[in-house]
Amino acid sequence: MGAPPLRLLVLVVLLVLICEEVPGGAEGRLCESQSHRFKGTCTNDRNCALVCHSEGFPGGHCRGFWRKCYCTRPC
Predict the structure, then answer these.
(1) Can the keyword NADP be found in this entry's annotation (predicted)?
(2) Residue 46 lies in domain
(3) CA 23 → CA 2, 28, 29, 32, distances in Å?
(4) Are 48 and 62 in contact (CB under 8 A)?
(5) pLDDT tens sequence across 1-39
(6) pTM
(7) Could you give the C-alpha distances from 53 to 11, 40, 42, 69, 74, in angstroms and in order?
(8) What per-residue confidence (pLDDT) applies to 12?
(9) I need a labelling partner for 34 at 20 to 30 A (CA). Which of 7, 27, 54, 69 fits?
């Protein structure tokens, strides 16, 4: 008698975990644009974000092999 409720519990837990992993549409997506004002190699995400703020973006980070500053905003 204990097996069916246990299987049901495991199934519910798995469904909850799967639902948490599925992205929820565009609400979590970030659009990126290379900074026009950042000069030199981008080695510090905070400096990049500050320059991006001056360009009107809410954030920014360094990325890529050549370490460019990319500004981010929600899509």
Answers:
(1) no
(2) 29-74
(3) 35, 7, 9, 18
(4) yes
(5) 555 677 777 776 666 556 555 444 556 899 999 999 999
(6) 0.63
(7) 46, 17, 15, 12, 14
(8) 64
(9) 27
